[in-house]
Design brief:
The complex is a heterodimer of chains A (412) and B (149).
Chain A lengths: L17 E2 L2 E2 L1 E2 L10 H14 L9 H20 L8 E4 L2 H16 L5 E4 L9 H10 L2 E4 L10 H7 L4 E7 L11 H10 L3 E5 L11 H4 L3 E5 L10 E5 L1 H6 L10 E4 L4 E3 L13 H17 L1 H21 L3 E4 L10 E6 L4 H10 L2 E2 L1 E3 L4 H7 L4 E5 L6 H17 L6
Parallel strand pairs in A: 3-15, 5-6, 5-7, 7-8, 8-9
Antiparallel strand pairs in A: 1-2, 4-10, 9-10, 11-12, 13-14, 14-17, 16-17
Chain B lengths: L11 H8 L12 E7 L4 E10 L2 E10 L2 H14 L4 H15 L6 H7 L15 H21 L1
Antiparallel strand pairs in B: 1-2, 2-3
Helix pairs in contact in B: 1-2, 2-5, 3-5
The chains are: A alpha/beta (412), B alpha+beta (149).
Keywords (chain A): Pyridoxal phosphate, Transferase
EC number (chain A): 2.8.1.7
Catalytic activity (chain A): (sulfur carrier)-H + L-cysteine = (sulfur carrier)-SH + L-alanine
Chain lengths: 412, 149
């Protein structure tokens, strides 16, 4: 039996269950991934052996807890090839990371009349913060068009990014269209015009090798829960000189250097941006998730997912009545596949698939401007990870047929 | 069990209302209207009502939604046209109860008519919001009407 990359499926107990009396096929990995035994065990170990607040005590437990929390930061630093641990800041999520940049850095560099350039494929979390910043600063929010295939139109990018552009904020991989954007090229373009490059890595870090120095981005944001760790832990990477120039946006414990009755000075990086007791077990679990992913090998994960996409995408395209959004060529496609079936509403399709034990997402995927761009109200989205198999892909394809027949080919 | 369980939800009457929605579109004589969105899925419902002397004289709906929300909206218009505002709001509460598996009076069940069939949505928790969206929109509309009258 096929058990995913290196039999990894066996490490995910949750996958071995029935949903609506059918064996579970979990295909909502772009929303959140499942957690392997090792990651769950790291949380239990922490609470059973090392639990104490970090950076606050001289006692032994506090030391152990601090060591575990900080060594997870070292793992993240190595994982994304950040130049130093002080450039890696713990946050709650990608959303919080992006809001931190928009609020603190945006406030610092954006002035009236400046341009902020994004794309229609941005998740709301890499769109609304810039919209708000633009409104507050009387800056101009501009969009880079997409090609008919749903890829970023680089010719249009060269027109939209100008000497007036201060910030370019683009997702590394789309959470709807399954495309990977040429971040290195866009970053170069942004830098040529003196703009700063911010990249949303929520859908890329879990699935491919990311090297922030190679990309040369100024900021990079991602979440733990889309890469085997629990919810509530995220990361912000930033270039050290930019992070140093930025003001914190939350104040309190851990982030201070010294507090006087009327003033205070800030702790050094990265703690300057980490006010309050952090998500200690979440950070440790993210470290454990990185160990797990590194052990599998990011290149192996990418190759494996590519094979799955090569297998499933042509099969989906062959189903009469299925419309796929994004590129139809599997080699330009990640494991995130959005589609609609006949004229059926995605909710009806997703409920049908759920009855067959297949968990997919239906809705606007926090990308309403993209839905508008595609001229649809919503889509169904199936998203794969390394523990999914060809058998899962077959179940999806067959069940779409079943759903289609149930709803009488859309003529309900 | 598989997909056959869906027959519990997508009954013939439900599909009929989705296919042939009653009172669908704009209402030229509308005295008030209200648009409600389901932010999680992007569905939009616009309910328009003509209310005269505390009675819902006419009622229509418009918008984008799944089979369940569209069918539910159609059933709602059939059940509530001709009802007093007070009765309509009570029936809206009864419908909400049905969708979470609570029992309601025989009288309320009869007044709801076809809409009572959607009580099976209680077995599909992820879809309860789809069924109740139009009813919430109308309830909000009626509440506003009551405070403004």
């Amino acid at each position: 039996m096929d058990n995913g990359l290196n039999n990894s499926r066996l490490d995910f107990k949750i996958l071995a269950q029935n949903i609506n009396d059918e064996p579970l096929v979990y295909l909502d990995n772009a929303a959140t991934t499942q957690k392997p035994k090792a990651v769950l065990q790291s949380i239990i170990n922490y609470y059973e052996h090392d639990n104490a607040n970090v950076h606050r005590g001289v006692h032994t437990l506090s030391q152990r807890s601090t060591n575990a929390f900080e060594s997870a930061r070292d793992k993240i630093t190595a994982f994304i090839n950040a130049p130093s641990r002080e450039t890696v800041i713990y946050t709650r999520s990608t959303t919080e990371s992006l809001n931190l940049i928009a609020t603190s850095f945006g406030n610092l560099v954006v002035e009236a009349g400046d341009e902020i350039v994004i794309s229609p494929m941005e998740h709301h979390s890499n769109l609304v913060p810039w919209q708000q910043l633009a409104a507050k600063k009387h800056a101009i929010l501009k969009y880079i068009n997409l090609t008919v295939d749903g890829e970023l139109d680089m010719n249009h990018a060269r027109q939209q990014i100008t000497d007036k552009t201060k910030i370019v904020a683009i997702t590394h991989a789309s959470n709807v269209l399954g495309v990977v954007n040429p971040i290195q090229e866009i970053t170069k373009l942004a830098h040529q015009h003196g703009a700063y490059m911010i990249c949303d890595g929520a859908q890329s870090v879990p699935h491919m090798k990311v090297d922030v120095q190679l990309l040369d981005v100024d900021f990079y944001a991602f979440s733990g829960h889309k890469m085997l760790a629990p919810t509530g832990i995220g990361v912000l990477y930033g270039k050290v000189e930019l992070l140093q120039a930025m003001q914190p946006i939350q104040f309190g414990g851990e982030m201070i250097d010294f507090v006087h009755s009327q003033s205070a000075s800030w702790n050094e990086l990265p703690w300057k941006f980490e006010a309050g007791t952090p998500n200690i077990s979440g950070a440790i679990a993210l470290g454990s998730a990185i160990d797990y992913l590194t052990n599998l090998g990011m290149q192996n994960i990418q190759n494996y997912e590519q094979k799955l996409v090569n297998y499933v995408l042509p099969k989906l395209l062959k189903i009469d009545g299925v419309t796929i959004y994004g590129p139809h060529n599997p080699t330009n496609h990640t494991g995130v596949i959005s589609f609609n079936l006949d004229n059926l509403h995605p909710h009806d399709v997703a409920s049908g698939l759920d009855m067959e034990g297949i968990e997919v997402r239906a809705g606007h995927h926090c990308a309403q401007p993209l839905m508008e761009y595609l001229n649809v109200a919503a889509t169904v989205r199936a998203s794969f990870y390394f523990y999914n198999t060809k058998a899962d892909a077959d179940r999806l394809v067959n069940s779409i047929q079943t759903v289609k027949e149930f709803f009488n080919n859309g003529d309900i | 069990m598989g997909i056959s369980k869906l027959n519990l939800l997508y009954k013939e009457t439900v599909l009929d209302h989705a296919q042939h929605p009653r009172h669908h579109g704009k209402l030229s004589a509308a005295t008030s209207h209200l648009e409600l969105r389901n932010p999680t899925c992007g569905d939009v419902i616009d309910v328009q009502a003509q209310i005269e002397a505390d009675t819902i004289v006419d009622l229509t709906f418009d918008g984008i939604g799944c089979t369940i929300s569209q069918s539910s909206a159609s059933m709602m218009t059939v059940a509530l046209i001709g009802q007093s505002v007070t009765n309509a709001r009570e029936l809206i509460t009864s419908f909400s109860k049905l969708t979470i598996g609570e029992s309601i009076s025989t009288q309320a069940d009869e007044s709801l008519g076809d809409a009572a069939i959607l009580g099976t949505v209680a077995q599909f928790p992820a879809r309860i919001k789809c069924a109740t969206l139009p009813w919430h929109a109308l309830d909000e509309l009626l509440e506003k009407w009551e405070t403004q009258k």
